[in-house]
Amino acid sequence: MIAVILTQVIDTLAGYKVVGHAKNSAQAMQFCEAQAPDLVILDLVLPGSTGLILLKKIKAKCPHAQVLIFSGNLNADIIRSALVLGVGGIIGKAATLDELKAAILAVSSGRAYLCAATSEVVRTIVRTPPGQMEKNPVLSRREQTVLRHIAAGLSSKEIAAKLGLSCYTVNNFRSRLSKKTGLHRAVQLSLYAARIGLVAEPDEPLQPAGR
Q: What sections of the chain are H helices per DSSP?
């Protein structure tokens, strides 16, 4: 449904056309490398990956492409991370069609665009004194390895098999990660892993770390 709406909106803009839709991150990268689009409209919730991980890959493989995040999953951490990764614009799914058009026109021409809600979050981030900014907790090497496997979509049982640990031990690591980060859902931990640079590229093996 969202893809249909986006296509209808883009079709009303002179000089713009849709060159492809991607259902997952792997397909998105294939399209980017094959079609070399000027603009990528990116959701943050994707099968097989997260939007921030895909954003990082797009900026690395297709640096010419402008990226507009169009998502309902926005918070201060995600917005901060997206800006650091070089996103061109951020707009929520509650935006009007006129706002969506304005965002597409702005970002595709190289100008930044933030919807009203995102702009307010950015103002809050800027106003926050450095000493009050959230600090990254210190993670052990094993905690980092478990976190990377969580970000890869593995279950506790699969992680245990890969690392030669019991499910009980892996669940203990997950509990410690949740306690240290304040995050409890796998998708939240995956986004956090992307934010702190722990996510491996598809061809990069995950090396078990020391306990």
A: 2-11, 25-35, 51-61, 76-84, 97-108, 116-127, 141-151, 156-163, 167-181, 186-195
